[in-house]
Input
Amino acid sequence: MTGFIDEVVKRPLCAVFSAMEMFNESIRGGQGIDGMFSRFAHVMASPTICGCNGPMSSPSVSQPGLMEAKSIESPASRAIGGEFTNEDELILERVEAALADGRVLKRWWDQTYPDRFAEKFELQRVFNRPANSFGFFDQVRLNRGPLPVMGNFQDMFYDQPRTPTNVRQEAAAWMRDQLREFVLRYFMRVSAFRQPEVYVESQRPDLPGYLERLSWCSEPSILRQGFGFTQHYYKLRDTGQIGKFPAGSESVIVDLREIGEKYEWIVVKVRIFDFAFRFKLLGTNGPELSIPLAEQSYLVLSREFILNEDDPTPHSLGRYGFGYAFIQDPQQGLIGYGPGQFSAAIELINFEVSHNGEIRVAMVFVVNRPERIANISLNPVDWSFRLADLFSFGLTSRIFAPVKDTLEMIPNSVDSFDPVYGFVSLVNTLSANQAAQQLCISREQLEKDFLAQHFTQHYVTLVGSLLTWRQIPDWLNSAALPEWVVLGRSS
Amino acid sequence: MAFDLMQLSAGTIELLVPGQEGRVIWQEFRNKLEAFNLFENVDSALDLTWKPGLPLRQLVKKTEALDTYRTVWATEGLGHYHTEMCWEHGRVPHSVITNDDVRGLPAATMTALHAGMGLSLANRLLKTIEIRSPEARIYDVLVQFIELCRNNAQPGYLGATYEALGLVIRNLYPQLVQVVDRQLQRIDENQVGYFWHGVGRGIYFAPTNFLPFNNAPWRAVEMSQREPPHEIGRLNALAGLVWALVLVNIRHPQVLEMLLKRHRNELTKSDAFSNGVSSSILIWRDSTADDSYLSALCQHQPESSDMTLVELWNQQVLQACRDALHRFYPVLKEHDCLGEVFRYQSLPALVARLQKERTRRVT
Output
């Protein structure tokens, strides 16, 4: 009797559940259908009703000795102290792939610059300032396949010694030593800064809540600019051990000269201040949708991205710089493209001191072209629970988690929708592409806007860092450096 | 019974369908159904009662009543069935095809048994991966899989066991294809080749390519070139796809002929197609000794006035058959290296290397 029930009830149910598990996987349509039908057929025909304990059930494969002969270790098994959280592991497991992509992009850049790009275009103009730039579109062959990329190059004047001509040579050599220390040791600690803030009287008494809204008194507000770097993980070069930087040392970015010597790589997080997503539906004079975003991204720095060259050419006293590959965030947010959401990207920031002491900065950015800009969920279950959570302070999702999981297994042909590219496609379809040709409503225009925004943010960061660079009389005198520089608390 | 009914219906429809191509497609569907049915339902095909611990020798003996074609597929099913019994017995399989019980088994059963065992090992281990398992966990499972294969397979047939991973992942865990590719690259480059060869085989058996509609099975070629992210993957996936198609349709060379006719441009861009043909012929030769189906395939000529197709057939299929039977098989068999053909690689180079090693040993 048990056998009969197993075959007539349990097996078909197991087959259905096993097939339905594919709904939980983010996978392309055809392969998902293959997975569902294969699972169904497999459970129905299998000699045992395996999969009924859940296709994710664990057979007892952990017999002693099975793994003893294992000669290869996983990254997690090499962790120091084993204190990694799930979030740490999700980041760490993406490091090597991001680095591999970054190395390919860097090699591609070295081979392609200055004029072998498939499409090169003007990006920004800076009036009466010695800076120039260009943007480009092209395709790079990564290990995992071809990737359409875009990017920009910007080159700008940074500083020069103000000294009489007869001591110019000594001054240039002094600038070189100063710059080396500043770029390789301190730049990442001080590349974020605060804009001037309104003075607020600290003696002012607190107002009751109902009066606060009527007050004209200045409120304390912090306006940060630039990039705020913090360091999180590292891999030691000698032992291959992966570790986490101790709490409290996140802002004290290691001396970049140690990368390649002591560290195989380090992972840092960058917070990009003053970053907003802007979108104008009705042209430049129309209303603008501006969403200020707390953008951040994990980055990995390895030896290939560090530049430390003294006297590289007869006209150059030194080249110093750093770069990084972007690590894609495991979580997907509302914005489908931007820092944290790049599938492959690198940034290089290289300074050069000429023989007369003039310093210039060249910055390179190469990134995958966006497939989508925004992710608006089209899942009604997700909407309903978000709404309910709003009124229940998040309790609904917690209490009804099993119900939510079950409802979310119902198939949905479209997971999310991109209103930005959706709009671009719609107006171009309706106007036979006239919108793109005459009004610049096109994906390409949006991509150029992204690059322009990228240019501006790096320009602002470099100009901002100039004040920090100039206010320290001697970067080599570490004992005399202010604490906020040493500890990386510039903002 | 459902499969039998489907086969019967397909046979009837095949008779009614107008045009040569339509009939070939329905014939291909019937063949695939028969092979799949024999593998998945080997217990009912051989009238086995579920008795964990039944010696493999006794199980294999039951295939003697079948013809050669059905024997090959049923034997692969037995490899899977026998390994499943080990799992159900509450133990991790060990020495499944290396223990004393296996010594008396015909050598012709080895490839199919190893391939079937690989499917069970892969599926059981992959079940332990949870939806949000980090890649490090998947890496560990892959290492376990390789270890289990080594503990259970004969060294010469290890490739047959490794390759099963790709088929299982492509069809039962398709969400893992890309991550497994990445992790295998860290473990061993050769494993990447076996994996994508298995994926190619999986694409052939994928449900969306199973039914004789929507341009199936021909669109599987396009899938084998689209899904892998790199050249090694594409070469192996195509070789694996062709391999499966040849073995399933070995009694009907016109299926292979139709594939070549439909995809002549894609299939002749590399030697992956001829590699798939040669490798499958080798394995069929090893699994059936002197089989009449093999002779018929190796003498088949397209009934077509399309001279380009005839020429292609001679170059890509007949030459591959001759090479497989006369140049490659004797050397690979002698060196106990048949498992090597479960991934795309230059067979002439492999054979030359083995011969060179032998010469070096002799001198």
